[in-house]
Amino acid sequence: MKEKRRRLSRSARPEALWERRCIVLAGVGCLLLVPLCRSQQAENLSEALARAEELVRRGEASAAEKEYRRILAADPRAYAAHNDLGVLYLNQRRYSEACREFRQAAGLNSVLATIQQNLGLCLFQLNQISEAVEVLERANQLDPDDLKTQYLLGYCFQLLGRVDDAVRCLEHVRVRKPEDENTLFLLVRLYRDRREDEKAIAAFEELVRFHPDSVFVHILMGESYDIQGKPQEAIEEFRKAVALSPDFPRLHFDLGFLLWGEERLDEAAGEFQKELELNSGFAPAAYYLGDIALSQNDYERAKGFFERALQANPGCVEAYLGLGKTYTRRNQFDKAREQFERAEKLDAKEPDVHYWLATTYRRLGDKAKSEAEAKVHQALMNEQRAERSKARQAQRVTTCLQRSQ
After folding, report:
1. How far apart are CA 388 and CA 132, in angstroms?
2. Which DSSP state fits 35?
3. pLDDT by residue (tens digit) across 17-28?
4. For residue 370, what pLDDT is reported?
């Protein structure tokens, strides 16, 4: 069996072309990060929180963090301090620490929608989309009219492939905010996925009319070119998007993914590294850096990136496969087998898992297991080919999008 380069599925990416771009979309972070009401806090606590907030406003983040810590040392049950410290961490992209504080705040006060919103946004940034949905649905129950929660729920549903749920949430937002560029952007994608060409084109035209210089216009054009098999044009559109918004979450990753697909590995690595600088816990970027290092026979570096991806997302099957292949290249087949077996426990329907198990068992001299895994691999590949043949008709709207610009 010939070795294959491992490519994450589009549904696994925080969403442009996959589960991609889990974004603190332009303005979403600012909209959600709202300090809590202090009316029910004791006077001295209110004064302390006010001092901390003033430090934040002055840009003295380190001093503000110390003030919040002082408050919590005196009163560990001060849910407002936990929330606002989480906001501070979230603005600094310290997502794991932010989630810890929001969880504590939610445990202390489970009826404030704002806390649930902030926790949901933080989980969203960590690409923990299923858990983010659970939290955001609680926020929605607490405040059904909040458009920010509806928007973020819609985005999460899209990432999870729950297209109808996503459309329902986002169309609700669109009725109230018809010119919102974030909502129009996601609806174009969703209508395209549902093959509702006229709706997709209409939403795209509104996006261009209301926001002609929007980064989303270039993202959609880039996706359109990518779907049509025009990678150079897609790369140019994503470069334009990066130039407009270099700190836009997941955008460097998307550009890197396209470059990676064209074997422009050094350029791709630069983009993935920039993504990690923006979000150090973003597992897909770490995975692809590991893949590139492995292709360049830099095994120690590859191992480090795959382990980093697993630290950020212990359920990342691709990272286990990458780590297993790294051990295989070093002729450490027992260690490789352990990684591939872990991958199998997570996703027994992934053909590559069985391909590498068959290869590893063969190298370990276990012919029976190798042959059994090879049969499973072939059967799953046959299933995938049948599925692909059913799905070859979903691209008509892309050319129409270009014509409508």
Report:
1. 30
2. P
3. 223 333 333 333
4. 96
C-alpha 403/C-alpha 201 separation (Å) is 9
| pLDDT number for residue 390 | 54
Question: Which residues, in sequence order, are CB contacts of 292 under 8 Å at separation 6+?
Answer: 260, 265, 268, 269, 272
User: Do residues 281 and 126 lie in contact, with contact meaning Cβ atoms separated by under 8 Å?
Assistant: yes
Query: Which 8-state DSSP code applies to residue 10?
Result: G
In angstroms, the CA 139 to CA 402 distance is 38
Per-residue CA distances from 266 to 272, 282, 296, 297 (Å): 10, 19, 10, 14
Look-up of token digits 């997941």: 250
Do residues 325 and 357 lie in contact, with contact meaning Cβ atoms separated by under 8 Å?
Answer: no
pTM of the model: 0.70
The amino acid occupying position 365 is G
For helices 215-227 and 251-261, the axis angle rounded to 10 degrees is: 20
CA distance 69 to 82: 9
Instruction: Check: CB of residue 115 under 8 Å from CB of residue 127.
Output: no
Widest pairwise Cα distance in the chain? 74
Neighbours of 26 (CB within 10 A): 16
Q: Report helix angle 396-404 to 197-210, nearest 10.
A: 30
Task: Quote the CA–CA distance of 228 and 17 in Å, as a whole number.
Answer: 12
Phi, psi of 248 (to 5 degrees): -65, 120
What the chain holds in terms of domains, given with CATH numbers, is 14-159 (1.25.40.10), 315-405 (1.25.40.10)
Residues in Cβ contact with 379 at an 8 Å cutoff, skipping those fewer than 6 apart = none
